[in-house]
Amino acid sequence: MDEISNISTVISSALAPVVMISACGLLLLGLQNKYSNITDRIRQLDHEKLELEQREKLTTWMRNRLRILTYQIRRLLTRVRLVRDAIFLLYVAILFFVGASLLALLSNIIALFSAWFIFAIFVAGLLCVLASGIFVMLEVYISYDVIRSQVQADYKARKSLLFIPEEFLGIFGDKEEGDLEKTDKD
Question: Which residue, among 149, 134, 137, has the nearest Cα to 181 in the 3D structure?
Answer without folding.
Answer: 149
